């Protein structure tokens, strides 16, 4: 086998060096990620340029790229906080957050990769303690869950302002009270519901009684008016009209006129 030419050995060495350099210089950034460039010999973290986007990048081998996930992420927290009257309440909450893309360099420089533990967790815990401390257990259990969710979001967002993090939503998934307090609240709510139902029945019965009284009064007034308007002459005229109509009926066979104390006609039928 013939020996390689003398020029081939340096070429092979240079090629190997290039491969090693390229391997150290090549950076691939995946979907939903971005890279912060750190220039070892030029002021460190690059903050005045956009972060490196998805795809393949070549950087100087002496520089570094720190990769961050820039998609929306979720933080789930179980927190024990105190209500307004000092009772311990457990809140299960989720926070949806993401780093602000254009400020990724500033985020890395000021907070680093563990920014979740540095600012987001302390912020949501502080906001939850502040908000829950304004309400009683009864309010937290029944009508105020949506309100505390919105207030925790607002206060957490205020704390995270200028921290290069975007808070999208806070969801209060569960509010857990001590069993004795929960049972007392449920018992009170049942009693209030029963009381409302009883009051409703009383009001309904009173309205029904009022309706019967009004109807009875109306009938009494109508009878009084009718009695006042009926004279003997009118009654006799009505009797005559009725007699004539009955005499025309095929069921009437005998008519006796002028009988009775009042002189009203009497009609005798088939019987």
TrEMBL record:
Compartment(s): Membrane
SMART domains attached to this UniProt entry: PHB
TM ranges: none
Topology of the protein relative to the lipid bilayer: Single-pass membrane protein
Domain Band, chain residue ranges per copy: 24-189
InterPro entries per record: Band_7, Band_7/SPFH_dom_sf, Prohibitin
PANTHER family assigned to the protein according to its UniProt record, in alphabetical order: PROHIBITIN, PROHIBITIN 1
The protein's name: Prohibitin family protein
UniProt organism field: Flavivirga algicola
